Amino acid sequence: MSTITFDTLAYAKRLKGVGFTEEQAEAQAEAQKEMLSEVLDTTLATKSDINRLEKQIIVLKWMMGLMLTGVVSLIMKAFFIS
Prior knowledge:
- This protein is mainly alpha-helical.
- It has helices at about 10-15, 20-45, 45-80.
- The chain folds into 2 domains: about 1-45; about 45-80.
- Helices cover about 80% and strands about 0% of the residues.
- Helix 1 (about 10-15) crosses helix 2.
- The chain starts with 7 loop residues before the first helix and ends with a helix.
């Protein structure tokens, strides 16, 4: 889960400066903070996400290497050891 720093007080003050009531400004600031947190939680990769993907890539590389070795040995056997 990612965390963000969002200055709700400054945001609410800015809204009050353009005519929002205090209640409207505070509600809007909280809604904005929740929306930003939700978006970041669902769209940004965390360090653990990246570590997990790196491990999966390493496993895939090993698997591809083993498959390539098998294919090469079959080709060698078929063409050169007949």
